[in-house]
Write a structure and sequence with these properties.
462 residues; alpha+beta; Uridine Diphospho-n-acetylenolpyruvylglucosamine Reductase, domain 2; Uridine Diphospho-n-acetylenolpyruvylglucosamine Reductase, domain 3; Vanillyl-alcohol Oxidase, Chain A, domain 3; 3 domains; 8-stranded antiparallel beta sheet; 5-stranded antiparallel beta sheet; 19 strands; 36% helix
Length: 462
């Protein structure tokens, strides 16, 4: 693993060979790139921060880092939740925020070519102006970058129908650890020539290559969504409804869950008049046209009622549907109004959602803490949020104990310790228990083959 640190000689070399690149060396500037959203994780102060504006600058920076044996931490908007972009002491953080151009919107081939620093919401708005739709939809879409989404294979509210980020990637331009620039695909819908390097790099959290451009799949813009809310007397009933909706053949664009603690926090924040006595709420959305949406929500409503829902309500307008969706997006921030929140990210097979919800309740009782659970119940991805009193001196100890029990419960149910946030540096010790020693050995062999010097985001994932 690369173990050099930024020195005056390195800084001089960068400024001499790439005079046009912006390089931050002041400690105050560097400190702002030290952490991502996982503030509870230890992090190091970058030795310098580079903000390249094109692929050639990225490649040149990589070659200089290889010469001086300096690790590189790739960083998007810093909104990650796994510690994958936190600083490494003395290393170079390479922030891609200056590579923020949408290069082409291709209506004929239903794709867009973009640099990694473009914000997800900016890309969505740009293609919407052409009557097109970019499906990946993280809750932080207004602040997270496309590069960060690609690095973590980000999920979001639409995964149940459209899949994670990987399903919308046609090709990449990447810089390898030796400074080589590769293209791994293009605008072809079908392409099986050789190994799928595109899908190997997406989700690798900057440990295999640095993404400098992406060709992403678009779809014709769907109609405005229709929304159904269903309230339940127990978490288990809500979990059963998730399975019932799937077996009824319903394919909603969104199928989200909030427990009572989250319902009340969101209602306090937005004043929506939600059923505060319900133990759980499901939000089901359809983006089908006209009567097809009505039919889809009717079948979902029937499944919820049969599973024990006590109350259901539908949005009366697209504006009301948008308001309800934004309230769900704000669930994490609503919880932050009532305490210090540690957000988790586990996934289980959809049929085991009721069991995972029950396990979360048992873990909260065991540790005598509050856990508010919300998430993408339609694909089994849940976010149990541990809520602690601000300034609690036991915060680190309690957080680790709760995390260990959550991860073990998910694995015992055939699930995963991360559905969409990534291993990063937060869950490295759990990769082998989930994947097994042989699988991790293969991953290490791939890492070594592509990055023998260990330059790219060392200590993350593996």
């Amino acid at each position: 693993m690369a173990n050099g640190i930024v020195t005056e000689a390195f800084i001089t070399a960068v400024r001499a060979r790439i005079p046009q690149v912006r390089l931050l060396t002041d400690p105050v500037d560097r400190a702002s790139y030290q952490r991502d959203e996982t503030t509870y994780l230890a992090s190091g102060l970058p030795g310098a921060v580079a903000l390249p504006s094109d692929t050639a600058q990225v490649a040149a920076l990589v070659r200089i880092c290889a010469e001086y044996d300096i690790p590189i931490v790739p960083r998007g908007a810093g909104s990650g939740l796994s510690g994958g972009a936190t600083g490494i002491e003395g290393a170079l953080t390479m922030a891609f925020t200056a590579m923020d151009r949408i290069l082409e919107i291709d209506r004929d081939n239903l794709c867009v070519v973009t640099q990694p620093g473009v914000i997800n919401a900016t890309l969505k708005a740009a293609v919407a102006g052409h009557g097109l739709f970019y499906a990946p939809d993280p809750a932080s879409f207004e602040t997270c970058s496309i590069g960060g989404n690609l690095g973590t294979n980000a999920g979001g509210l639409c995964c149940v129908k459209y899949g994670q980020t990987r399903e919308s990637v046609l090709g990449l331009e990447v810089v390898m650890a030796d400074g080589t620039v590769l293209r791994t695909g293009g605008k072809n819908i079908k392409d099986v020539a050789g190994y799928s390097l595109t899908h190997l790099i997406v989700g690798s959290q900057g440990t295999l290559a640095l993404i400098t451009e992406a060709t992403l799949r678009l779809r014709p813009a769907p109609p405005p969504r229709s929304t159904l809310l269903a309230f339940f007397p127990s978490l288990e009933a809500a979990g059963k409804a998730v399975a019932a909706i799937a077996t009824a053949g319903v394919s909603p664009v969104t199928l989200e869950l909030m427990d009572q603690l989250v319902i009340r926090a969101v209602d306090d924040m937005h004043g929506l008049g939600l059923d505060r006595e319900a133990a759980a709420m499901l939000m089901v959305e359809s983006d089908l046209p006209g009567s097809a949406a009505d039919d889809e929500l009717t079948r979902a409503e029937d499944a919820c009622t049969a599973s024990g829902a006590t109350f259901t309500v539908r949005s009366q307008s697209p504006a009301e549907a948008d308001l309800l969706r934004e309230a769900r997006r704000a669930a994490h921030w609503a919880l932050e109004r009532i305490g210090e929140v540690k957000m988790e990210d586990v996934g289980v097979p959809r049929s085991r959602v009721p069991d995972m919800l029950r396990a979360v309740q048992e873990i909260a009782a065991k540790h005598e803490v509050r856990i508010g659970t919300f998430g993408h119940a339609g694909d089994g991805n849940l976010h149990p949020d541990l809520i602690l009193e601000r300034g609690d001196p036991r915060a680190a100890e309690i957080t680790r104990a709760v995390q260990q029990d959550l991860y073990r419960a998910a694995l015992d149910l055939g699930g995963t310790v991360t559905g969409e946030h990534g291993i990063g540096s937060a869950r490295t010790e759990w990769l082998e228990p989930q994947r097994g020693g042989d699988a991790v050995r293969v991953m290490r062999a791939i890492k070594t083959a592509l990055d023998p010097q260990g330059l790219l985001n060392p200590g993350r994932v593996l």
